[in-house]
Design brief:
Layout lengths: L2 E3 L22 E5 L8 E2 L9 E4 L12 E4 L3 E7 L7 E8 L7 E10 L16 E2 L10 E5 L3 E6 L5 E3 L10 E8 L2 E6 L2 E7 L7 E5 L12 E10 L5 H9 L6 E5 L20 E2 L10 E8 L3 E9 L15 E7 L13 E7 L6 E3 L9 E6 L3 E9 H4 L9 E10 L9 E3 L15 E5 L13 E5 L16 E3 L3 E4 L4 E6 L4 E4 L11 E9 L11 E7 L7 E7 L9 E4 L5 E4 L10 E7 L3 E6 L2 E7 L10 E3 L9 E10 L5 H7 L2 E3 L7 E5 L7 E2 L9 E4 L2 E4 L7 E4 L4 E3 L14 E10 L6 E2 L1 E4 L5 E7 L5 E7 L3 E8 L8 E8 L4 E6 L2 E7 L13 E4 L11 E9 L5 H8 L3
Parallel strand pairs: 1-45, 18-20, 18-29
Antiparallel strand pairs: 2-17, 3-4, 4-7, 5-6, 6-17, 7-16, 8-13, 8-17, 9-10, 9-16, 10-11, 11-12, 13-14, 14-15, 19-20, 20-21, 21-26, 22-23, 22-27, 23-24, 25-26, 27-28, 27-29, 30-44, 31-34, 32-33, 33-44, 34-43, 35-40, 35-44, 36-37, 36-43, 37-38, 38-39, 40-41, 41-42, 46-62, 47-48, 48-51, 49-50, ...
């Protein structure tokens, strides 16, 4: 069962330079827009007088080598040609203060790296975008710098580096931020936290340069374009970073994405856990009202949840604002007009126990709005659904800005007057003034992430038996008369609550005392409330006769202080985390938990429901039980897809296990994409087509890839693509691109990158690195007719190289690109379709006849059903 998330995954970048913290910010050390367009000075708008001197102003990428370039996206920007000695460099005169493990800083900037900039340290990956290399303390060498591959906080060694998961891409604008918050160093790209480390060393004071290290002439010169560089003596928040990206003075909140819409019933569904909590400014009298509010969105609706604490609720006036009522303010497009409300600026007022909607400028803007209220122990709660097409006339996009605010009118004694009004973001009341309201940004929807086999201890699909499909051999034994039924994926096991269960014998691998994650699908089939009586358990690691008798349980009842399914661990004190709501009888639900050794979090249908502190888990010589708790509290219903991990899974991984899938955003012509970041018995296909490869022999994970991990091929190991079953629609015929990074060992043999053979025994595809040091790119049509056999380019042994072979039937062209450069392009004499089946087999890393094994490292393998352009190949190399 897959729930497909459809959304815009790209962030909307608003490029105004007037936004974010301005010159009045006392922590702003330097702010260089780099948009002058002339001269040799980079103006500093921080007010600190740190104007930069542009050394070698003819060492840029503009006309006649000018550093000034008019960019179609960002307007006037500064450029650098990357030539040591004569290239451009900006000397700012700023000295970055010495940094210990308590001080803070933030660097942020836009850059567009030129395609000619190298990607490895040998080819320019160590060049300086911002910072320095040689201007700091010499012994031990100490410096701070941004490069195309790392942020380096250097003190004698590389322990304080943040290596980007993907190198700086070329030919696109990227917003980069590094935040030092005490001893935590975090890198953000385009507003998203990418990676963080804990610092262990200090760094002395350092000079600050742009485009190169200018301490002793232009060294380690970088090639590309810079815009809007800012440095702070503080740790910027993510909302402050998003404000700079969006070009606004501030952003007050991020509106979370609802992967499932909340039910409009006034109750707090699990999805509300992804929304940030905003508080009203309490009234002066503490006996009066207080409260909080949250906002979510999806592509159809904006959702608001308001929870009010108020011991005196009134509704006796014609005008809702004179009684206890919630006011929701909406400013489409975040125009922040101070004129009386018009256009898509609206004030919606919802009175306590009132069904109608009142407000200002809402005539014609209320269609489809729903709300539901409940009375709580401390006041009342209202949940609201507001269709986008009604309130602003257009669907949203991730990254959009909206104006939003929420007020509360408090009437304590009845009559046509209120006693007070609570505000939220507004500095003063702004019921008719959108400029007073807060600014919110619509979050990018989460991307479900396949957890793969990393940390997978045991996996029970329960399709036909109780065997462990993880490959770890922890098979279970079925006790009683369970039945096989249709499940979430394939089969499932049905338990009748009368002694039916699965037992997996005690094993040290299952006796996990630290980080752990549990995942399973359950279908309760009994009444009270998820099983039999007051106690029932679909899963446990327990046994009544053992000592200690249990480590953990997934259960309802047995001393539980809440009437919901929970995960409980034998820790000190005992830890409980709940799914937070009654599970409907006869329906499938995904429940899971993740514990990192300090915090236990429960999930329901992919969403976090509750977190609680947790210590070490008690070791116990007990079996793993599915369908019971070890004390005859047996499950009544079905169970499917049980998994145990010895690590804490992320929220994105929990979404994946709960069946959610995101649009990949991949080129639809991409048939296969193996990133090789993880290599196990299976290599996952990340094209979205699900065409995983099976590892045969020695193909192992290696951490030293071009982008994260790589696959190490040895001893004639290969990856099998199950050619006879490979879907015909994904086999290239009229066009093709095959590309990969490779680092070949010089074995004296040819190295087959890929090979396929058709049903008529035609050898279809022949890309390889040959023993004589050249690449070969050969394709055949049916009948074994060779359309072309290109031999071009130079194989440099034991070095990373990027190979791409292309063919296009319409143009009749075939080409080979090595490291993004065109090595050869030929006119095909008789263009035809490539043989369109792989019935005799298809492999990565070895020929079908077991000859020419690839030996060495391979990374980022891609197969397309069309011919990519050279520019697209260059972008691919950069990780785009």
């Amino acid at each position: 069962m897959c729930k497909k998330l459809t959304y815009l995954a790209s962030f909307v970048l608003l490029l105004s330079l007037v936004g974010g913290a301005g010159a009045a910010d006392p922590d702003l050390l330097g702010w260089w827009p780099l948009n002058e367009g002339f001269g040799e000075i980079a103006v500093d708008l921080s007010g600190n007088g740190h104007g930069g001197t542009i050394n070698n102003p003819s060492g840029g990428l503009g006309l006649d080598g000018s550093v000034w370039v008019e960019d179609p996206e960002r307007g006037m920007v500064l450029s650098f040609n990357g030539v040591n000695g004569t290239g451009a460099c900006v000397t700012t005169g700023v000295t970055i203060p010495a940094m210990d493990l308590t001080t803070d800083f933030t660097w942020m900037f836009w850059c567009k790296q030129d395609a000619s900039q190298g990607f490895t340290s040998a080819t320019g990956g160590n060049d300086v975008i911002l910072g320095n290399r040689y201007g700091g303390t010499a012994a031990p060498l100490q410096f701070v710098k941004f490069t195309p591959t790392n942020f380096e906080f250097y003190n004698g060694d590389n322990t304080n580096f943040i290596t980007y998961p993907e190198v700086m891409p070329s030919s696109v604008w990227v917003h980069n931020v590094t935040v030092k918050d005490g001893d935590k160093l975090t890198y953000y790209r385009d507003g998203f936290e990418v990676r963080s480390i804990t610092l262990t060393k200090t760094v002395d004071a350092n000079p600050f340069y742009m485009g190169a290290d200018g301490f002793n002439g232009v060294q380690e010169a970088w090639c590309g374009y810079l815009s809007d560089v800012r440095i702070y003596n503080k740790a910027a928040t993510r909302l402050e970073i998003l404000a700079v990206i969006a070009g606004v003075e501030r952003i007050d909140m991020e509106v979370g994405f609802a992967v499932v819409p909340p039910v409009i019933d006034g109750e707090v569904d699990a999805i509300w856990s992804v929304a940030s909590t905003q508080s009203f400014v309490p009234l002066a009298d503490p006996a009066n009202a207080s409260g909080t509010w949250k906002v979510l969105y999806d592509m159809e609706n904006l959702y608001v949840l308001v929870d009010i604490t108020d011991d005196s609720l009134q509704n006796d006036s014609e005008a809702a604002w004179q009684d206890d009522s919630v006011e929701v303010y909406f400013d489409g497009g975040n125009t922040k007009l101070s004129t009386p409300l018009s256009g898509d600026d609206h004030q919606y007022t919802f009175g306590w126990t009132a069904d109608d909607i009142q407000g200002t400028n809402i005539a014609g803007y209320t269609e489809g709005i729903e709300h539901a209220q409940v009375t709580t122990a401390t006041g009342w709660r209202i949940e609201i659904k507001m269709p986008w097409l009604s309130i602003q006339g257009a669907a949203p996009q991730a990254g959009d800005l909206i104006g939003i605010d929420c007020y509360y009118n408090d009437d304590d004694d009845g009559g046509d007057s209120r006693e007070g009004k609570m505000l939220s973001f507004s500095a003063v009341e702004g019921w008719n003034d959108a400029s007073q309201w807060g600014t919110a940004i619509l979050a990018v929807p989460p991307t479900p992430v396949d957890p793969g086999t990393d940390g997978l201890v045991a996996y029970y699909p329960l399709d036909a038996d109780a065997d462990d499909a993880s490959g770890n051999g922890l098979d279970g034994v079925v006790m009683g008369d369970t039945r096989l039924i249709d499940g979430i994926m394939g089969g499932a096991m049905l338990f009748d609550g009368d002694g039916d269960y699965i037992e997996v014998a005690h094993d040290a691998a299952l006796d996990i005392t630290g980080a752990i994650s549990l995942s399973l699908w359950i279908r309760p089939d009994a009444e009270d409330p998820e099983g039999r009586g007051t106690e029932t358990a679909p899963m446990a690691k327990a046994g009544s006769t053992a000592s200690p008798p249990w480590s953990w349980q997934v259960r309802y009842g047995w001393g539980s202080p809440q009437p919901y399914m929970a995960f409980t661990f034998n820790t000190s004190p005992r830890a409980w985390a709940y799914v937070g709501q009654k599970l409907a009888q006869g329906e499938w639900h995904h429940i899971a938990c993740s514990a990192d050794g300090e915090t236990l979090t429960a999930y329901l249908n992919g969403l976090a429901t509750e977190s609680t502190p947790m210590g070490a888990i008690t070791s116990s010589p007990t079996p793993l039980l599915i369908g019971t708790d070890g004390w005859s509290c047996d499950w009544i219903g079905a169970i499917d897809e049980v998994a145990v991990y010895n690590r804490a899974l992320s929220a994105e991984e929990m979404l994946y296990l709960a069946g959610y899938r995101a649009d990949t955003g991949q080129d639809p012509s991409l048939s296969i994409y193996y990133s090789f970041d993880e290599v196990g018995d299976v290599v996952a296909d990340q094209s979205g087509k699900g065409l995983d490869g099976v590892v045969v022999g020695d193909v192992l994970a290696d951490p030293d890839g071009v982008f994260d991990g790589a696959a190490r091929f040895a001893n004639a190991g290969y990856i099998d693509l199950d050619g006879p079953s490979f879907p015909a629609e994904f086999i290239p015929t009229s066009g093709m691109t095959l590309a990969a990074w490779m680092k070949c060992e010089n074995t004296g043999d040819h190295h087959a990158l890929f090979n396929a053979r058709a049903s008529d025994q035609t050898w279809v595809v022949h890309p390889e690195a040959r023993s004589n040091g050249e690449f070969r790119w050969l394709l055949r049509s049916y009948g074994g007719t060779t359309m072309f056999d290109v031999r071009a380019g130079v194989v440099t042994w034991d070095e990373w190289l990027h190979f791409a072979g292309t063919y296009d039937k319409v143009s009749g062209k075939a080409a080979v690109c090595v490291n993004g450069e065109l090595a050869s392009e030929v006119d095909v004499a008789a263009p035809a379709d490539i043989a369109g089946d792989w019935a005799m087999g298809a492999r990565v890393g070895k020929n079908i006849d077991d000859a020419r094994p690839f030996t060495g490292l391979m990374d980022e393998f891609r197969l397309y059903t069309r011919a990519l352009s050279q520019d697209e190949i260059v972008d691919m190399m950069a990780g785009m």
